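Run log, item B.
One chain of 238 residues. Sequence copied directly from the ordering sheet:
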Amino acid sequence: MTTTTPTTQLDLPGQAHVATGPHDMNGMYLMHHAFRRDLRRLQSAVRGTPVGDAATWAALTRRWGRFTDVLHHHHSAEDDAVWPVLLRRVDERGDARARATLEAMEAEHDAIDPALRSCTDGFAAMVAHPCEDHRNALDVHVTAFRESLLEHLSHEESGALPVYQSVVTAEDNVAIEKALERAYPARLMPFLLPWLAEGLPEEGTRCLREIAGPVLSLLLTVLGGSFRKGERRAFHHA
C-alpha cells in the first residue's frame, strides 16, 4: 500500500463522506456534486414545466439526454477500470466485508439502468404526447430514479471510496486515473466542463480548474455563457 502524504479532499454540498487518504478523490466528488444538482433540477423542472410548453419540454428532454450520456460513461468507467482493481486488492487481503461493498456498487449500477430507461421513455412521451397523465408518470419515474442514484452516490462515498483509499497502490491509482481520463470522449468536453462547474462553491471551482489545467480552464471560460443559456432554456420553470 502506498505511503503517499494524504491529499486535501473536497467536502461539497450534499456529499455523504470525505474519504481521507493518499489518493485524490476530488474528481469523483465533483462528478457526484453535478449529478446531485441535476437530479434536484430535473425533478423540479418535471413538476414545474407547464404541460403545453412544448419548447421547454424539448429542451428538457435534450438536457436529460446529456445527463444520461455523462452518467453512462461515468458508470462504465467505474465498472471497467475501478471496481476490478479494488476487488483484486480486497481479495488479496481476504476482506469479505470490503468485497461485499464493492459487489453492491456493481449491483446498484445494474438496478439504476432500468429506472434510467423509464425516465427516458417518460421524457419522450411528454414530447410526443404531452398530457398530465404522462407528466405524472414521468414525475414518479424521476423521483424513483433520483432516490436510487442519491442512495448509490452516498453509499459509494461512505463505503467504496474509503476502501479505495485503503487498498489501492500508487501504481494502481495512476493506471485508474489514466483509464478514467479516456472514459469521456472529446465530444463531451464542451458540455462536461461547464456542467461540472455549475453551482460549485469557490473551493470546488478552484479544484476543477487545477484538475483541468490551463487549456481546458480557458475552454471552460469560453463555453460557460453558452452552457448557462441552455440551462435557462431547459430549467426556467424549475
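Observations after the first pass:
- Residues 26-235 form a domain with the Four Helix Bundle (Hemerythrin (Met), subunit A) fold (CATH 1.20.120).
- The CA atoms of residues 38 and 48 lie 15 Å apart.
Flagged for discussion on Thursday.
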